[in-house]
């Protein structure tokens, strides 16, 4: 497993579409290109390719000779009471591709509201989240990752992720652990 501060050179084994950082624009890596892994956290890889930072989805890990990252193990019999803690655990597996800290510890999650919607214990989830910078092009990609991961949880039938910018994010919103990780 790669240390947070280590970099690893890899060869792109098949053509694959990635997202440029910070714009979020699609970009195609060609088979045979050299890349360097700078971050392998959550369910994606951050790579440097010809001086450009890009984000590779974990589902495409084989394109750089890696295994897809492990997903969160969900208990078989999840009760409605277990859902909210499970959502928070899941959110901690989402990372800003430029920062080696999960979005919860970064202080990007402002609200996580879980509302029962039927007698079977199914729920609707509303999440308000922000970004470290309002113009960050990765906002949609991070929000989509949150949606995908939370919707994959049992009993979650619907999710809304709102990108909000009030109050504006500041470093003071980070957990102590995040500040230590980033040397602040």
UniProtKB/TrEMBL annotation:
Membrane-crossing segments per the record: none
Domain spans labelled MIP18 family-like: 87-161
InterPro entries cross-referenced by the UniProt entry: Fe-S_Maturation_MIP18, FeS_assembly_SufT_put, FSCA_dom_sf, MIP18-like
Highest taxon of the lineage: Bacteria
Family annotation (Pfam families): FeS_assembly_P
Protein name as it appears in the record: Fe-S cluster assembly protein SufT
Organism: Comamonas denitrificans
Gene assigned in the entry: sufT
């Amino acid at each position: 497993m790669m240390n947070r501060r280590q970099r690893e050179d890899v060869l792109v084994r098949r053509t694959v579409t990635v997202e440029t950082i910070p714009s979020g624009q699609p970009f195609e890596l060609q088979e045979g290109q050299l890349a360097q892994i700078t971050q392998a956290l959550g369910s994606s890889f951050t790579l440097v390719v010809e001086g450009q930072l890009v984000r590779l989805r974990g589902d495409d890990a084989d394109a750089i000779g890696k295994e897809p990252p492990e997903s969160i193990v969900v208990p078989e019999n999840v009760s409605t009471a277990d859902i909210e803690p499970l959502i928070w655990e899941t959110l901690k597996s989402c990372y800003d591709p430029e920062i080696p800290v999960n979005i919860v510890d970064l202080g990007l999650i402002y609200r996580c509201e879980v509302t029962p919607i039927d007698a079977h214990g199914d729920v609707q989830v509303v999440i308000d989240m922000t970004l470290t910078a309002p113009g960050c092009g990765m906002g949609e990609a991070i929000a989509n990752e949150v949606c995908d991961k939370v919707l994959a949880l049992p009993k979650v039938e619907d999710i809304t992720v709102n990108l909000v910018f009030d109050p504006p994010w500041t470093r003071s919103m980070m957990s102590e652990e995040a500040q230590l990780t980033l040397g602040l």
